[in-house]
Design a protein that fits this description.
Helices cover 82% and strands 0% of the residues. The chain is built from 19 helices and no strands.
Length: 487
């Protein structure tokens, strides 16, 4: 079965691009721990220092939608080299930054580089993986990036206390150099099409060939991209402002309205264009749409938990920032190690069993968070979150693989761009909603911040439980649509 063989060079290419995504997420999560130190050393306030993550997220969200266009116009190796060298240069810039503006500039460049690297890794897998090994290789890619949220807070806490925040960036330099060395030798163009798409590619080859050819030769639309910039920027700013101003404030409502108008106009222009930045035909595939809904709901949940758990641990249980950061570590490690096992299950049994089973585990874990929400301890946090991460490891990577597999080969890059972009936006909203619920409840307990945090967190856990049930229904609908299409 030579066709099913996984070449070492393909694995190395996945690792090379994955290390860049890993570095991006590590820098993002580690920076959150450094905020008090940066505020003191650089003489800045909370609203200013938050731009180190908000700006990074915004740059990432604005570059990811270009991934499909860039893939059509440039070689994979060229994209890899640009992303790596940009990230490497920006990391050194951050490490040497004499003041905040230089540090922020470096973070923006890092976000843009990650925006190229993240979809690039999955495009390599989708374009070059043998069909029978697609689940495993998607899991390998997910494993690399899934470890980052576990490493970031711990790394940030330990390094800042012992060596200072600049060392966080210096430690990423050898990782990026390793990525560069691997990628220069192994990142290459696929011979032709996508092996992983299998029958989907054959069935849709003729219908998508003409559109793909036109898109490849089309010019970059500045107007369309400007609409995306306005739409995504307004959305992220609205989500950030909601936690402090409230979701019903005129500022937040105006920003969300501007975002909706801009994105609606982008969709109208894209529907009429022969060379759109993102081909919206992906939304015509019902199985992909419900898979996307599942992934966005779970992304909302995991980012909300990333805010709720450390916040509760410090304000209610009185734990230190370092201990609070460590609470997520066992779960992240278990979830990441679960990914390759889940990928093998997909290759052998198909997606429904691991995805639906994993989602049930997620629902059970969130039910435990909700039931014990007023009396959570360090041990309970670690146990419940490890259970949650186990379910996530079984479900999310496989749902992503199966959802993208429902698209024809010429739309896989567009689907990948849509998925990665909307994940960033869903995560931003998840954190903001969780913060809003906790802050709103704290206002009703002016005499006790701990009690307000305790009750607010429980309300947030109940919301996440409801969203997880909706995710289960979305997964069921996605698999039903896929079966109906293949019948």
């Amino acid at each position: 079965m030579q066709q099913d063989r996984i070449s070492p060079s393909l694995v190395a290419a996945i690792v090379a691009t994955g290390l860049m995504s890993f570095s991006g997420v590590v820098s993002e999560t580690a920076m959150n721990v450094t905020f008090p130190t940066l505020m003191r050393e650089l003489g800045i306030g909370t609203s200013t220092v938050q731009w180190l993550t908000t700006g990074y997220l915004l740059a990432l969200a604005l570059v990811v939608p270009l991934s499909s266009f860039l893939k059509r116009r440039h070689t994979l190796k060229a994209l890899f080299l640009v992303a790596n060298l940009l990230f490497l240069g920006a990391t050194v810039l951050c490490a040497l930054a004499p003041h905040f503006s230089v540090l922020l500039a470096g973070r923006l460049i890092q976000g843009a580089a990650t925006g190229i690297a993240l979809p690039l890794m999955f495009n390599i897998i989708l374009g070059q993986a043998p069909a029978s090994r697609l689940g495993l290789l998607m899991a390998v890619g997910s494993l690399i990036t899934a470890m980052a949220p576990a490493v970031g807070p711990v790394l940030g806490g330990v390094i800042v206390d012992s060596y200072g925040w600049r060392v966080i960036f210096w430690m990423l330099v050898p990782v990026l150099l390793l990525s560069l060395g691997l990628g220069v030798k192994t990142v290459r163009q696929p011979a032709s099409g996508s092996v992983a798409q299998g029958t989907q590619q054959t069935a849709s080859h003729h219908e998508g060939n003409e559109a793909a050819s036109a898109a490849e030769n089309g010019a970059f639309s500045v107007a369309d991209y400007a609409l995306l910039v306005v739409g995504f920027s307004a959305f992220i700013f609205a989500a950030e402002q909601a936690a402090s101003h409230g979701w019903m404030s005129s500022v937040v409502g105006g920003l969300f309205g501007l975002s909706a108008l801009s994105l609606a106009q982008f969709c109208r222009r894209s529907a009429r264009s022969e060379t759109p930045l993102i081909r919206l035909e992906v939304f015509g595939r019902e199985a992909f749409v419900f898979s996307l809904a599942f992934i966005l709901l779970i992304q909302f949940c995991v980012l909300s938990l990333g805010y709720l758990i450390p916040n509760y641990s410090q304000l209610v249980d009185g734990q230190s920032a370092r201990v609070a950061g460590m609470l997520l570590l066992p779960g992240c490690v278990v979830g990441a190690l679960m990914a390759p096992f889940a990928g093998r299950l997909l290759d052998r049994l198909g997606a429904p069993r691991p995805v639906l089973g994993g989602t049930v585990v997620i629902i059970v874990s969130l039910a435990l968070f909700a039931v014990y929400g007023l009396q959570l301890t360090t041990v309970l946090f670690m146990g419940f979150y490890t259970l949650y991460a186990t379910g996530q490891g079984l479900a999310v990577g496989n749902m992503m693989t199966d959802g993208l597999r429902q698209l024809p080969a010429d739309l896989s890059a567009d689907g990948n761009a849509v998925l990665n972009t909307l994940q960033q936006l869903s995560g931003a909203v998840g954190t903001s909603v969780a913060a809003s619920i906790v802050a709103g409840t704290q206002a009703h307990y002016p005499q006790s911040l701990a009690e307000g945090t305790r009750h607010g967190s429980q309300y947030a856990f109940v919301l996440l439980l409801v969203l997880a049930v909706l995710a289960l229904l979305s997964a069921w609908r996605a698999f039903s649509a896929a079966r109906a299409r293949s019948a």
